[in-house]
Amino acid sequence: MTVKILIKRKFPQGKATQLEQMLIELRRQTVNQPGYVSGETLQRLDRPGEMLVISTWESADHWRRWSFNPDRLHVQEKIDALLGTPTEYEVYTHQP
To answer: What is the pTM for the complete model shown?
Structure first.
């Protein structure tokens, strides 16, 4: 059963370009992972500095494996250091 991962980030003004570069690197790595289906990045219109990534995976196990991958964690640590706040994750599945 597919899952949707909501990844929420808040970033300070002046950090958008650096964040974009790191997200491109993360997306480049993600698309090659087993179980990855798709992803999209959205910026919130009413609150500048807030971003949402919606990532779709074949299963929660596929997402979990990728979430603990050392390559992903390395980039994620740099993102959180840049933002000064931790990234928030929420995992959803379709209700039968």
So the answer is: 0.89
pLDDT at 22: 94
Residues 6+ apart with CB under 8 A from 80: 86, 87
* Number of domains, the chain: 1
CA–CA dist 41, 67 (Å, integer):
17
Q: Which domain holds residue 85?
A: 3-93
Domain of 49: which CATH number?
Answer: 3.30.70.100
Contacts of 8 (CB under 8 A, 6+ apart): 50, 51, 52, 87, 88, 89, 90
Q: What stretches of 1-94 adopt beta strand conformation (E)?
A: 3-10, 36-43, 50-57, 88-93
From the list 15, 23, 5, the residue with the least C-alpha distance to 63 is: 5
DSSP state of 86: P
